[in-house]
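Figure 2 data, in text form.
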Amino acid sequence: MQQVITLEPLTQLEHQIELLLLAEEYPDDFPQQLENLVALRHQQVELVLKQPDLSRAVFDDVVARTQVMKGLLQQHKDRIGAQLVRSKKSQKSLSLYSNIQQHGQ
């Protein structure tokens, strides 16, 4: 029996990323939260795209959603960068930022 992967987990992760980015104040563990959410989203996208019966419409939707997410991260890049620099572990934070940039693309 074939397992069908829905887009609901992807939608939930994207919503969480949006809420985190649009927050009035970023929480202290913002860098880690963002990295975790972006990594989970990346895993979810891979699961969806590995489906043997993947339709063109779903593929196009995932690609479009990834572009939107990338745009959102770019839009908040300066604020994200400022938060990461302020973080206590600035060296680790900068490597997290680099990692987030790679996953966002």
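Caption note: The two ends are 34 Å apart (CA to CA).
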